Fold each of these.
Amino acid sequence: MSTTPQRILVAEDNAALSRVLQFTLTKAGYEVLQAPDGNVAWDLAQEQHIDLVLTDQQMPMMTGTELCSRLRSSERYADTPVVLLTAKGLEMELPHLCKELGISATFAKPFSPSQVLATVQEILGKKIGSAN
């Protein structure tokens, strides 16, 4: 019996960080879609089924919180988990944003990709493969 891997959308304009996240998540058994900005992320979400969104806050075209707000206004993604990555953690009202936009978790940059993976696995409720 074959199961389809859970699909994660990584919206991150830093190409190196996006590749690290893709490598980490793919190695753990997830399917990863990458978007270099919020508009591309939104378009991908319209074309594909997404199980979780990992988004940077500061991206060109549309910020992570704008993307999250748009996802929340869509019936299809109203309850999809979102993890927010930010270099501006101390400047943002993260608890307020998390409550207002239903953000599942936040990570201040720099962060450990293995910690992001552990959080993704916890949120999705399924550990696939190994992070070794």
Amino acid sequence: MSPANSDHPSVRVAASADVAADALIGDGSSIWHLAQVREGARLGRNCVVGRGAYIGTGVVMGDNCKVQNYALVYEPAALGDGVFIGPAVVLTNDTYPRAVNPDGSLKSAHDWEPVGVTIKEGASIGARATCVAPVTIGAWATVAAGAVVVKDVPDHALVVGVPARRIGWVGRAGVPLVDEGGRWRCPVTGTHYVEADGRLTLEDQ
């Protein structure tokens, strides 16, 4: 990783982006126009932060992540390798938000404790979806566009709606799996999975 203020040749930061000097940006990563990456953020290798996106203080992103235009990734979110965040997605960090305290005084940073969204390897969050912290999105899961996630999402789950509910399973290719009577098959890779107790695992595990 390279400090944001270094001249590392493999890190691209648009002139209009606002990247904190102590943010660490992995080799091959790109921060595009009007994006903001806050203090202490750590981005892995080959990440893309799109136009107008916000990466909060201390947010951690793995390798090969894509955060699309105008997405808001509030601290202390943690993204695994290969996570996709669609345009205008919001990852919140305040379960009970208020601008003021009960006595009417303006809330400060010391008046609340931020909680984060955790997104595991390979998961995708569709455009304009909202994940309400604290929730965990499982590995290779897909959250459909416009969904509002208020509870944890299992690995490989496909969730839609408000509030989000599971309607199926997806494989690593992101395509819905085909039900073969107790077994689930990815129509792209041919990989088979088994379902038990509301969880999906590879057939040979």
